[in-house]
Amino acid sequence: MFDPLRIKMRVLFYVALAFLVGVGVASGMGWTQDAVATPAISVAPQVPAEAVQPARDLSESFVRVAEVVTPAVVSITTRRTVRATSNDPFRNWFGTPDPEPRAGSGSGFLVSDDGYILTNNHVVEDADEITVQLEDRRTFEATLIGGDPTTDVAVIKVEGSDLPTLSLGDSDGVRVGEWVLAVGNPGFRSAGGPTSFNHTVTAGIVSFKGRPLGIIGNELRSDPESQEAAQYAIEDFIQTDAVINPGNSGGPMVNLDGQVIGINSAIASGDGYYQGYGFAIPISLAHRVMEDLIEYRAVRRAFLGVQIGPVGPEDAEVYQLPEVSGALVQDVTGTPAEEAGLQPQDVIVAIDDDPVDYSNQLQQLVARKRPGDRVRIAYYRDGRRQETEAQLGQSPLNETATAAAPEPATRAEERLGIEVVDNSPEVARRYQFRIDEGVLISGVTRMGPAARRGVRAGELLVRINRRQVESADEVTELLAEVEPGEIVTLVLANPMNGGQRFINIRMPE
Questions:
Q1: Which tens digits make up the pLDDT trace of 133-191?
Q2: Does residue 364 share a domain with residue 289?
Q3: Which of 153, 287, 297, 463 is buried most deeply by CB count within 10 Å?
Q4: β partners of residue 129
Q5: Which residues constitute the domain of residue 194?
Q6: Could you tell me if residue 95 is inside a domain?
Q7: Do 476 and 346 fall within a single domain?
């Protein structure tokens, strides 16, 4: 009699037997031992600890400096608003592209616990909006205190208290070969995602001091309105091999004591990205500019008035100098330098007790003084070292500082970034509205506060803080009651189906 269960049991018995025989044969021939053996992996240090201890100490110094510095380094985002040119709100509502706004980003660092921030002038120049984000992701709207195009230094301010700050060091005492860290907070974001690059810290050494690049002067000469200011550009950069890329511009360069010795500024490459060397504005110069911008909203630049050039080996031989250094005087006509007795072909070698090793250093030393200060000038003439005293004048280009002028008062709806018109019967008929209440939002400033909260042109604004809106004038009146920093609630309606939504927006300063 056919028994399926018995047949299955026999099949399983023979399969098991064949498996055991196979394992026995493999073991006897040595096939299994080597195949499953696990190699021994060593985790013991290969270099004696004492040999790498100096490197470990340096690494620990970098870590500690980074931990101290990064909380005070901020990300700066700027925007220049571009309004839609179309008068038809529905063209904007249904996706007609607007011109893209100009946006930029950079870094800065807090120098006072009440919100003063140092950065580069080119980071914030001509910005309509300046937004600052701290390491802890707190975000502030910033005000431009002032900027100086001739040094590329600017000061902005946020409203706050007990903010983290950095200590300013002495860039004059920096030595070539000294370790430095370049810190930035570029705040780059991936499309639709969270922040991808917050703080960056790179290490390098000081490669050179007093490096003239010509980038500030060239930038000023490219603008017809700033060409005269180009001759007053001060370029006395600290050169480093620490990586400085565009988003780090405006961040601090610090020494191993965590003190700021420079402001990351320029990268010398053809495509705008790091190619082996970066540059920073000496903090001793930036500190002087910062003080003027905070106190006067402009730079009060002292003026000696000499036109100068570098000193080369041939000059040192002709003018019988003890070494190849100093600043060669080219012209002094009608200046405080002429009144002090200086002449063309004199070689200035010191201001007060500070040596002048190269021509750009003379510019920086004078820039640290104030108009009206008296300075001692050491110079060589006909092979003899001599001294004179000069009273510094005031630069005729003090107005080149981009001080933040008071802005005319604007309506609250403009600060929110919306334009409204009455929802008249003519408008309703033209667009076949089914809703006859509220006012029509005829325009939304791209990247403005309202746009960032999702307000769209073509919607109806029907209530503000629970109060009904019937005209554009009422919008102006109601929004004028909202203080800067307070949150206003807008009730918006779809004019086609009456569907409503609520938008909460903080009123800008």
A1: 998 889 999 999 999 888 899 999 999 999 999 999 999 889 999 999 999 887 655 44
A2: no
A3: 153
A4: 79
A5: 62-296
A6: yes
A7: no
Q: Which of 98, 107, 122, 287 is catalytic?
A: 122
Greatest CA separation for the chain = 133
42 carries an active-site annotation = no
Q: How far is the C-alpha of 376 from the C-alpha of 354, rounded, in Å?
A: 10
Please compute the mean of the pLDDT values over residues 231-259 and round it to a whole number: 85
Three-state SS sequence of 96-125: CCCCCCEEEEEEEEECCCCCEEEEEHHHHC
C-alpha span between 497 and 106 (Å, rounded): 44
Catalytic residue among 105, 107, 207, 249: 249
Active site residue 152: yes
Cα dihedral 236, 186, 75, 407 in deg (nearest 10):
70
- pTM of the full structure: 0.64
φ/ψ (deg, to 5) at 187: 65, 25
Range among 229-233, 275-279, 300-304 rated most confident? 300-304
158 and 226 both lie in a single domain: yes
Neighbours of 319 (CB within 10 A): 17
> How many structural domains comprise the chain?
3
Q: Are residues 365 and 420 in the same domain?
A: no
Residue 490 DSSP SS3: strand
pLDDT digits 0-9 by tens, 470-484: 888 899 889 888 888
